Amino acid sequence: MSTGSAIIAAASFFWLGMVGAISFVEAPLKFRAPGVTLQIGLGIGRMVFRALNSIEVVLAVLIVVAAVLDPPGCLVLVGVAVAVLALAAQLLAVRPRLIRRSNAVLADQTGAVAASRSRAHYWYLAGELVKIAGLLTAGIAVLAG
Questions:
Q1: What total number of domains does the chain contain?
Q2: Do residues 6 and 145 touch, judged by C-beta distance below 8 A?
Q3: Which of 2, 6, 38, 83 is most buried per CB count within 10 Å?
Q4: Closest Cα partner for 145 from 53, 51, 78, 48?
């Protein structure tokens, strides 16, 4: 296995693990913990997802650079492209809506905003599932190649 392929595999699976752990374990569980209010949960979530998204951007750049310097097979490139495009959609289209919503919930003293449902979380979750598919495809394809 070449250095570029090893970097793509390692970074893809590391990224996949972070998305799985944070989006599907930490995020839903924090609101079930004793004493965690909506405000505290939102504050924690904002910090955690800001950090996750920053690390995801670094991993995406690392994977893309490795793919440019040591081009892998077509299926790997498709998986990488899917994951990177899903991340870009989340960061540019969905995350700003989630930030506006959390700002509104935190500023609302009546609880009316929090009582209404937001579809933006479902779009973010859809992006996570697309990223997982892309990262699994890229990681498995590079190992199989």
A1: 1
A2: no
A3: 83
A4: 78
